[in-house]
């Protein structure tokens, strides 16, 4: 029969106190319960572990040897549990926050300042990550928390609230026929050649004749934010389909995307923040007026939902727009 944890705890506490009354008080049990637990252990061992008289309690040689054998393992288990509790509930330590793109980079800097103001005993490290490998770095525990473009979903991931919302725009060559327009519609992209990248963002669903101007109603598998990603979709959303235009050249990073767009090799759907952070003389940005907005926010591994993670998400969610 395996030894129960409370039996080990009772034995080691009595070995330290050498007094049934103090042991019972320390453990929050009755003296009778302590005595009964020790008797069960002694029957299991086959010899007495304590010598009892009306005046004192002492360890037998077997009891002393058992104490020496059990104490290190008992303390190691308690220390491990204390570390786990501190990790889950405590705020002291280090939190590594990953972010994708300039817009989220600026946001997490502001969130980190607010977080440090509230929790000065926790160090925050910020890491820029490329969207193509962002979720992999999260799952490898290289970052504790990731800020990116929704949807970022998986059975092992939890998403927080959207902390940044922006319009979708189309990056086109400066001499493109769209470059001088105030806005375009999703339907205008039908024949456009789209650059393909890990951070590809769809323009949005195309309306059919039955859908009308308001667009299709969400199905049972769709949430208010739009269709859920499939296995082929990246963290920033699905790559352009054949209905959204012919596939153009492939790029690995956002800077490569803009270089290809500027060279006239294709167009690319982006968020409105690019007009502030990625101005280029060879690229123009045009609003897609009927596309749903992009939503950015935090995501973390469900099993790593520590107090530090929750506190940082709260700090980011409370920032003014």
TrEMBL record:
Residues 232-249 have a biased composition (Low complexity). Residues 205-249 are annotated as: Disordered. Keywords: DNA-binding, Transcription, Transcription regulation. The keyword Nucleus does not apply. CDD domains: PBP2_LTTR_aromatics_like. It comes from the Bacteria. InterPro entries: LysR_HTH_N (IPR000847), LysR_subst-bd (IPR005119), WH-like_DNA-bd_sf (IPR036388), WH_DNA-bd_sf (IPR036390). The keyword Transcription applies. Residues 1-60 form the HTH lysR-type domain. Belongs to the LysR transcriptional regulatory family. This is LysR family transcriptional regulator. It comes from Actinoplanes ianthinogenes. The lineage of its organism: Bacteria, Bacillati, Actinomycetota, Actinomycetes, Micromonosporales.
